[in-house]
Amino acid sequence: MDASSATPLPVAVIRTGVANLASVLVGLRRAGASPVVTESADDVAANAAVVLPGVGSFAAGMAALEQMGMVGALRRRLLDRRPTLAVCVGHQLLFESSDESPGVEGLGVAQGRITRFPESVRVPQLGWNQVGATSSASLVRSGEAYFANSYRAKTPPSGFECAMTDHAGPFVAAMASGPVLTCQFHPELSGAWGSSLLSRWVSRASAFETERASSC
User: Fold this and answer.
1) Is the peptide bond preceding residue 35 cis, with omega within 30 degrees of 0?
2) Closest CA to 173 of 203, 202, 147
3) Each residue of 101-121: b (16+ CB within 10 Å) or e?
4) What is residue 94's three-state secondary structure?
5) Is the CB of residue 148 less than 8 Å from the CB of residue 162?
6) In this predicted model, what pLDDT tens digit does every residue of 170-194 receive, in sequence order?
7) What's the whole-model pTM score?
8) Which of 43, 96, 118, 202 is the most interior residue, by most CB within 10 Å?
9) Residue-level pLDDT at 18
């Protein structure tokens, strides 16, 4: 499916309060989506596709989701592998916990803990870095992406196809499972390579929604 020629995919972008949404919305529109910002758990449960952005702390992101009553709906959506994109801290929230916020539980749909980069390297990692994907990857491909992070997941969790990068050792740059895509980097700030990734995600999400509607 060509996202540029299809009916724009409706995408609910969660207003977490810890993200600058302007660049995310622009990137989604260029990829062939029709994004709308939401604070509604019903939208998360019912919408064709959902984006969980994030800039800030692990604790603040989870607190925002809990305040809006979205935790259960978002977790079910991810476990059901419905079209969802999570970016930066949003990606980290899929894991069980983070050293950034001891005692705060994440969504727990990916096994593992988020840890901080050591002081032996620049913290935060701020700028461009290489992303390495497997040759068989259908969604995330090798390229250069823009990162802004002090924490990362070092070990690829089971149940996801993972692309890796390196900063004081390898860590998970992106994960994909069906129409679920999570990125530690910012695809909306990663030039033509990031735009292509967003377009592939929108196309996959649109195809999933079309198939789901035809089977109902």
Assistant:
1) no
2) 147
3) beebebbbbbebebbebeeee
4) coil
5) no
6) 999 999 999 999 999 999 999 999 9
7) 0.94
8) 202
9) 63
Q: What is the distance between the alpha carbons of residues 160 and 162, in angstroms, rounded to a whole number?
A: 6
Instruction: Judge whether 181 and 140 are in contact, CB under 8 Å.
Output: yes
Q: Strand locations in the chain, DSSP E?
A: 9-14, 33-38, 49-52, 84-87, 97-98, 113-116, 125-131, 143-149, 151-152, 161-166, 170-177, 180-183
State how far the Cα of 97 lies from the Cα of 43, in Å rounded to an integer.
26
Among 53, 66, 97, CA closest to 187: 53
Which residues in 41-156 belong to E strands, given as ranges?
Answer: 49-52, 84-87, 97-98, 113-116, 125-131, 143-149, 151-152
Residues 6+ apart with CB under 8 A from 99: 113, 114, 115, 116, 151
Q: Identify the pLDDT of residue 1.
A: 42
Helix (H) or strand (E) holding 168: none
Residue 6 is predicted with a pLDDT of 60
Shortest CA distance to 205 belongs to which of 101, 14, 49?
Answer: 49
Catalytic positions are 88, 186, 188
Other Cβ atoms closer than 10 A to 80: 10
Task: Count CA atoms within 13 Å of residue 117 on its CB side.
Answer: 20
Write down the mean pLDDT value for the chain: 93
